[in-house]
From TrEMBL:
Protein name, per record: Alpha-glucuronidase
Higher taxonomy: Eukaryota, Fungi, Dikarya, Ascomycota, Pezizomycotina
Top class in the EC scheme: hydrolase
Organism from which the protein derives: Cladorrhinum samala
Keywords on record: Carbohydrate metabolism, Glycosidase, Hydrolase, Polysaccharide degradation, Secreted, Signal, Xylan degradation
Domain Glycosyl hydrolase family 67 catalytic: 153-471
Length: 844
């Protein structure tokens, strides 16, 4: 058997070595199974032939990537040649465009290709990778590498074409280097108002994106700074484009609609004003001079305070067409966001509804958008909630090109401090049938352009990677990015298969790892829905601050329109035509009829469409309120299993990623209890309806902090109140910054317990805590989650900062003394909510 020394070295370095996640799923880890390796060696071609020797060509990149991948996976170093004469040897990996291939190597039927498509043929050691274009050839190379990385050396002959031409990622990076809704450090693109000098991370990002067949990046935030278009930044964007080009990725740019005024010094930004038109024409020419392959523009106009054409009583189509005309001569496109709504809506008006806004703003303009415009539509009518019906706009503008906007960054889904594997949610939307004109009208067929015969369309994913080597903050969350790209290519792929492939590439072939990651990941979405917001009520988070922890009251009585209309007796938005906002009527008739009728509305969208008493019976037979209670208890209970399951992978996953993932899953398990109790307490207090199982407000194993003997600590209220157990917490107020809370455990039977401490970890300080049992140290911890999770929580005592730590298996004798010492740091007051002494196997 041939086993190269390089491979042996790599094997010895093996699994236990640290990995920081920087290579994502492109690790090219050595094959560990000797039989499979032998197959690889037996079928390995002897040389890589790339049909383009220009260093900026994606075909050239494909050659380099193949060389690195084969070296990593099989341990063999293949030479690359760029010969243009047919090779004598059949045993090669040949990679190039169809044109180059047909010019001398063989014939491939070009009519079978869509733009960016590829042909991959593996026949007994001879590999042909032929792209419709250079980018397609690179995609084919990554497909080959994915197969061998997963130990699959079977022969194959396939042509793969994208479902849609637009497969973009959006980054919401600000020029100052911060990222809106980014949870993994600072921007890899910008710093201090301009583009960073060292674009190494951008190249690494491009490599990951190319491997999942993404073809464009918009690096700057949709809430765009006009300075993005100054000369320095045009040059910077040019440098970004230069780095992306070898990966077949184009750059696009978010625009600030008022740039002619803010940057150009004009007195107006009226899209029909000739001076404004020429300003944009000239800017666009400058951009294309530096970046001839600029993909185009992304525009957020008249949304959440952003300027736009409505400022001048022009239509949104007037605004979009302005840019469409400017980029048209260069082949550019305009992605125009449909996220236009009034965020000062009057909540007292029963028929007001933010979910109606997109159709109201766009429907009458159908047919007025030029053909290089794509309207970019969020999957639901509100905003990346845990559950929303598919956005009705998809079925309301047949003559307009459409793209679906999905979110990889988990803005409303736990911000990567909780893990949610999102593809099942995306699939539900993509597979949703709008039944337009009573014909099959799947959202995925609509955005691909098939259903309405649109010439353009596709996918935009908001990713927001940052400088952290894990890219997204949570190693497991990278499966979302992986699946996003491949679903944009082929939305019929299954969430389970994508997850399986990703895990195989990211953590290796161990079946225990594969099963564990799969079990955890596939449970996360229903779990998060269970403990955040049920029955279509939305993610019940704090919408007025960071969208992270629980705060159901924040949804209502403000202009943002994420209303629940919860009262003492009823809950839910009445979106019916007969008595509500009429939103159900925005869907084509067959679907409208389903949502209009409470009997046919699925339980999980009940409160999205209907205003009902808490005692309304679901199809499951439970009342709404009892379902809330049960789901929150079930969800938090399931979340406890995640760290437990992950623990089984100790020594099966490298230490660094094992530890970081364990930390986050443990955090999630603790915070899921904060969610559970806050939401349940809120609705229990509001409805005054008790939990049939007596759990809500009743915690047999808790000792409320306010009941301990306190020194230096005083009682405080959390805001909202329900984010503290029994509505009260304690915080150190002593001037020396020292607090002490003591209890004699006279009511605890001697035995072994898990001891949980619920506390508040705010940003702006790193308080120290020490817990002692009979004077012996039990646990010491620091309020430093902002460092460990790389995530800004809150500077207040609330549902974002509330968290808990647990020590397992503590021997306690009746009458033992438990003491907690808190030391203030900065604005962090070492606040405590409760201590729970929990018998093994229980949860409180
Ligand atoms: C080789 O790649 C360069 C850069 O992408 C491209 O301009 C050129 O057309 C390619 N040549 C062939 C023969 O495909
Ligand atoms: C690979 O290239 C090196 C350097 O050009 C050369 O010495 C070597 O013989 C080549 N190997 C094969 C197998 O062609
Ligand atoms: C390997 O790839 C072939 C061709 O795509 C496929 O039919 C087969 O199921 C794969 N084998 C495994 C073990 O995944
Ligand atoms: C940031 O940019 C400004 C100019 O816009 C410059 O004056 C300043 O020195 C820069 N800061 C750093 C730390 O380089
Ligand atoms: C805005 O435009 C509409 C339609 O073009 C027109 O009816 C209306 O009078 C205009 N309003 C103002 C304030 O110019
Ligand atoms: C689809 O649009 C193309 C032009 O873009 C046109 O040639 C074709 O007839 C249309 N097909 C249908 C079914 O409308
Ligand atoms: C990435 O984030 C982790 C916390 O998850 C932190 O420990 C680590 O230092 C960060 N690394 C970088 C390079 O930012
Ligand atoms: C109908 O709407 C009114 C508000 O206009 C509301 O108070 C009432 O509860 C609704 N009726 C039903 C049956 O939902
Ligand atoms: C979610 O809650 C429902 C209702 O209590 C329960 O049937 C389901 O098993 C729960 N799922 C998870 C993953 O927690
Ligand atoms: C309970 O609900 C009432 C309104 O019904 C409210 O005034 C009170 O503040 C709530 N109490 C808590 C602790 O949330
Ligand atoms: C909860 O607080 C109330 C006072 O607001 C107090 O009477 C009650 O004993 C507390 N319950 C527990 C379990 O500490």
């Amino acid at each position: 058997m041939r086993v190269s020394s390089l491979r042996l070295l790599a094997l010895c370095a093996g699994l236990v070595s640290a990995e920081n996640g920087i290579n994502g799923w492109l690790r090219y880890a050595p094959l560990s199974d000797d039989k499979i390796l032998q197959q690889g060696l037996d079928t390995l071609p002897s040389v890589i032939v790339t049909l383009n020797s220009t260093k900026t060509s994606p075909v050239y990149t494909a050659g380099k990537e193949l060389q690195a991948g084969i070296l990593g996976v099989i341990g063999e170093s293949l030479n690359i040649t760029h010969q243009t004469e047919p090779a004598a040897q059949s045993s090669s990996i040949l990679v190039g465009t169809a044109a180059a291939y047909n010019a001398g190597y063989g014939t491939v039927d070009i009519s079978k290709f869509a733009p960016d498509g590829f042909w991959l043929s593996i026949q007994k050691g001879s590999v042909k990778i032929v792209g419709q274009n250079e980018r397609g050839a690179l995609y084919g190379a990554f497909e080959y590498l994915s197969r061998i990385s997963r130990g699959n050396f079977s022969d194959v002959d396939l042509i793969s074409n994208p479902d849609a031409p637009i497969r973009w990622v959006n980054q919401w990076d600000n020029l100052d280097g911060s990222i809106e809704r980014g949870y993994a450090g600072r921007s890899i693109f910008f710093w201090n108002g301009t583009v960073v000098q060292d674009l190494t991370r951008v190249a690494q990002y491009a490599r990951l994106l190319a491997s999942i067949r993404i073809n464009a990046i918009v690096p700057n935030n949709v809430n765009a700074n006009a300075n993005s278009l100054n000369n320095e930044n045009i040059e910077g964007l040019g440098r970004i484009a230069d780095v992306l080009r070898p990966y077949g990725i184009q750059v696009g740019l978010s625009l600030n609609f008022a740039s002619p005024q803010l940057l150009g010094g004009l007195s107006t930004f009226d899209p029909l004003e000739p001076s404004v038109v020429s300003w944009w024409t000239e800017k666009t020419a400058l951009l294309y001079k530096r970046i001839p392959d600029l993909a185009g523009y992304l525009v957020k106009a008249n949304s959440e305070g952003q300027p736009g054409p409505l400022t001048y009583n022009r239509t949104l189509a007037d605004g979009a067409n302005l840019f469409a005309k400017a980029v048209k001569p260069y082949g550019g496109v305009v992605l125009f966001r449909a996220f236009v709504y009034d965020h000062h809506a009057d909540w007292n008006v029963w028929t007001n509804d933010r979910a109606n806004a997109a159709v109201q703003f766009f429907k009458h303009l159908d047919g007025e958008f030029l053909d290089n415009i794509v309207v970019q539509i969020k999957y639901g009518a509100i905003d990346f909630q845990i559950r929303e019906p598919a956005n009705p706009l998809f079925a309301n503008i047949p003559k307009t090109n459409k793209a679906i906007e999905l979110q990889i960054t988990q803005e409303y889904l736990g911000q990567q401090s909780h893990f949610v594997y999102i593809p099942p949610l995306w699939k539900e939307i993509l597979d949703f049938d709008m039944r337009a004109d009573s014909k099959p009208s799947l959202v995925r067929d609509i955005v691909a352009g098939r259903r309405y015969n649109n010439t353009l369309g596709g996918y935009a994913g908001v990713v927001n990677v940052g400088t952290n080597t894990s890219w997204l903050g949570h190693h497991l969350a990278m499966s979302n990015l992986y699946a996003y790209g491949l679903l944009a290519w082929d939305p019929t792929l299954s969430s389970e298969d994508l997850l399986h492939d990703w895990t195989r590439l990211t953590f290796g072939p161990d079946p225990v790892v594969l099963k564990t990651v799969s079990d955890i990941s596939l449970a996360t979405l229903p779990t998060y829905e269970n403990y955040s917001g049920n029955l279509g009520i939305q993610t019940l988070t704090d919408i007025l601050y960071t969208h992270f922890g629980p705060n159901p009251a924040s949804q209502d009585n403000n202009g943002w329109g994420q209303w629940t209309r919860a009262t003492a007796t009823h809950i839910g938005m009445d979106r019916t035509v007969k008595n509500g906002t009429g939103n159900a009527g925005q869907y084509p008739p067959e679907v409208a009829a389903i949502f209009e009728n409470i009997e046919t509305t699925p339980d999980d969208l009940l409160l999205w469409f209907h205003h009902v008493p808490y005692t309304h019976r679901l199809k499951s037979g439970k009342t709404v309120i009892q379902h809330f209670y049960d789901a929150h208890y079930e969800g938090a209970k399931t979340a406890q299993t995640f760290p437990r399951q992950w623990e089984a992978l100790r020594n099966k996953v490298d230490v660094e990623r094992f530890t970081e993932v364990l930390f986050r899953l443990t955090y999630q398990a603790g915070h899921s209890i904060v969610w559970r109790d806050s939401i349940n307490n809120f609705y229990h207090n509001l409805s005054r309806i008790d939990d049939e199982h007596g759990r809500v407000g009743n915690h047999p194993h808790r000792i409320e902090a306010e009941r301990l003997s306190l020194k230096g600590y005083s009682l405080v209220k959390a805001n909202p109140l329900e984010t503290a157990s029994n509505f009260t917490a304690v915080a150190v107020t002593a001037t020396d910054g020292l607090g002490e809370a003591v209890i004699k455990l006279d009511d605890v039977k001697s035995g072994t317990y898990d001891v949980a401490f619920a506390y508040y970890d705010v940003i702006g300080g790193r308080a120290h805590y020490g817990a002692f049992l009979n004077g012996e140290p039990l646990l010491e911890w620091i309020g430093d989650l902002e460092d460990k999770l790389g995530h800004a929580f809150s500077n207040k005592i609330d549902g974002h900062s509330a968290t808990r730590v647990t020590v397992k298996g503590v021997e306690i004798q009746k009458g033992d003394e438990l003491k907690i010492i808190g030391v203030v740091d900065g604005i962090e007051t070492a606040a405590l909510d409760y201590v729970a002494i929990i018998p093994p196997g229980e949860l409180d």
